[in-house]
## 1
Amino acid sequence: MKRIVVLISGRGSNLRALVEARLPIEVAAVISNRPDAAGLAFAAGHGIATQVVDHKAFAGREAFDAALGDAIEAQRADLVVMAGFMRLLTPGFIRRFAGRMINIHPALLPAFTGLDTHRRALERGCRVHGCTVHYVTEGMDEGPIIAQASVPVLPDDDADTLAARVLAQEHQLYPAVLRAWSDGAFRLEGERVSWRDACTWPDAAHYPEY
Ligand code: GRF
């Protein structure tokens, strides 16, 4: 069975969705840069190994990233899955895991990279919004797109209601992508992701209607 390491910094609702999806994938460890991340308790409660690599304990980004990279490598994982991991990573770290690290971002990339995506989407009058799973490359939130899910922006939305609607999609999209990855359904080809059968995935089952 393929092994993943999940990186978190906080709540861990995407981690929970991945675990509860009972994928044919072993979660080798959950690693957090924050000792108080709620997702750590969830992982421990499900018998998953947890580790804290506290960024505050390191003199700088290079030292933190080196320690984090070593902790990941020790797990011999096939894929690094960032799920709400809120640290900017150095180019060296990203090169170390090039092609084997993915992230979920709460916007339809390439729109709205960075933080505060829901408020910014509302401010721009977007009629649709969503989330993106992508490979991690040196440009922040700029890596090759693996899959996306969209939601409508409704007239009465505020950033919280919109975030909740997007998050519900994240919880479907990330497990679906991981399942597809375990099946070998897509691969990275240069700057783009190519799907083995683009006609059947993603399909309607991944996008419940509103
Ligand atoms: C999610 O919105 C994810 O897209 C973003 O950070 C948030 C993490 O939430 N990268 P959680 O910790 O998985 O609940």
## 2
Amino acid sequence: MTEFPRCDRTPSWEALQSHFQQSGASFDLRQAFDADPERFRTWSIQAPGVFADLSKNLIDTRTLELLLDLAADVRLEAQREALFNGDPINHTEGRAVLHTALRAPAGQGPFSDEVQASLTRMLAFADAVRDQGKSGITDVVHIGIGGSDLGPAMVVQALQSYVPAGLKLHFVSNVDGHDLAPVLRGLDPRTTQFIVASKTFTTQETLANAQAAKAWFLRSGGTDVARHFAATTSNAKAAAEFGIDTTFGFWDWVGGRYSLWSVIGLPIAIAIGSERFRELLAGAHAMDRHFREAPAVGNLPVILGLLDVWYRNFHRFTSRSVAPYHQGLRRLPAYLQQLEMESNGKGVDRGGRALGFGTSPVVWGEAGTNGQHAYFQMLHQGTDVIPVEFIAVKTPNFGAHVDGELLDKLKDQHVKLLANCLAQSQALMQGKSAEVARTEQAPTASKDLDRDVLAKHRSFPGNRPSTTLVLDALTPSSLGALIALYEHRVFVSGAVWGINSFDQWGVELGKALCNSLLPRLASGDATGLDASTAGLLAKVRG
Ligand code: F6P
């Protein structure tokens, strides 16, 4: 394992600390905009497929200089090359991390022949299922969890307008039967294709759902399990034991949360077709090249990752909210939770030494404008500062079935959506003083309340940071670029923190304890359990 300097042991970390105390902590966005009419232009980056307005962040030229020094001190470029070259940077599992190879054009990148052969075979199968005239398939039920669910589910939802009208894709992940049961209702086994997605083919939730789905299939008149069930897995043997002949394999250098580009993307390919799946890969590859080749100062994943470090370790913000202003992206926050929190939610460095600083923030959010009517109150007036990431899409695509008057109306609604998006970042930044609030009439305010007290309730601190990402349209290509942007940004902050962003040992303990509790739910045996778990065991057994 190559050792890289840890961020908190570099001269730039110390310089950032004193810079933060001297001016960073008191930085004011309103003053920054007043002082520099060019701030929007200076602090925006056009990356492939994604434009970023960074100007409403608590950052100035000196902060950026020091953050770039930090990137140099931790040898970010060398770490990035180790990623792209396939060095075993997931050292606790002895694995390379090569999701970028999955979207490299044929003949480029490591393992190109294997990647292309696997892709071609998977896409041919996807197109055959999608050809409903021949396949007769109307419903695809995808069974998987974590990285074997979140990416495909999010992308299929985002690209709904590309899915043929007669084809429905369903995603089942939870071991809770309330996930599978409503999906199966009304399905015809003869027109349903199941995909069991599990890298290991050992995951409790996925196997339980797959067994239940198979039992339903056979009881409902299904006759050909081998034809109606396919698997995407690295464990073809276990899939064969289940009764699945059609298996699409992949490699240990594809991490679960980075696997939508591999055969795990099969439901995406069925939904949007092979050509569009290739566009998704090409969009991500364009972002890979940007990340690998653009100078650090204009490199969007680098700058976003460094900003994350600035906010987490110097401002000590503990969370970041993501607000996609596109209903198709409503599962993006859930996807990003796994990507960022499973990757960077670590408490030791690569050498196993405890960290004396914060790592992954809590990532959370909801599609706009829905979030505005739920938690935005706290973003505007709460006691915590939470950087927000807005995602706007310039041109809508409602699908071919929307035309005429309905299209006009929905286009108008899109203008309202964009106005809301811009207004939120503006309000967070500008705020409103009590003096201004005092001059306003608030129709719903109590007439009995003192005007000064009311003005305090109706004032906003402002100076709350946000980034706005803009896509021209939500297409396979721009979505690919957006996802790759997030992957690399998470890599950047993880590299600065000196952690292994590619393992997930934190998930293991709960799994092991579940396995030992499972027989106790049947037997009621509470021997040796702590009093709380024993009490709960008795309670849930009824
Ligand atoms: O949550 C832990 C995890 O290992 C994820 O990283 C992975 O995506 C998920 O479980 C599912 O694993 P599998 O694809 O092997 O079923």
